[in-house]
Amino acid sequence: xxxxxxxxxxxxxxxxxxxxxxxxxxxxxxxxxxxxxxxxxxxxxxxxxxxxxxxxxxxxxxxxxxxxxxxxxxxxxxxxxxxxxxxxxxxxxxxxxxxxxxxxxxxxxxxxxxxxxxxxxxxxxxxxxxxxxxxxxxxxxxxxxxxxxxxxxxxxxx
Length: 158
Hints:
Strand order of the largest sheet: 1-2-4-3
Largest sheet: 4 strands, antiparallel
Shape: elongated
Strand content: 15-25%
Number of strands: 4
Mean pLDDT: 88
Structural class: alpha+beta
Distance between the termini: 75 Å
């Protein structure tokens, strides 16, 4: 004899619960950020998100791009695909200023603003990795200069 079980059909209260919000992946990321924040200290979180950014950049390598325009095009394609805004670079004699705009200011379900704390380090790790792929020396590093809602300014240089 085959055992059968009737499972309850979602009711109105379930439909309301699942209809809130537009982006289930943002909610999932928010939950993951919350779990990381509950188990890690600030410096551990920083190191973790730097590594995430590096891994992200390594998964989208710049290849043989030698011109800055190619790096801008490549990074903007990655960020736009991920819904993480866009970037522009300004070069001077001592480094490169990185202006990243259009980053989601907040993620669905992120009541602790953990995304605002994590995103700058993810970007720092990604840009540093891309510059290293292009041959950036050990003396040079990528640093966060300013982080505000939706925009982050970084610098790669001495």
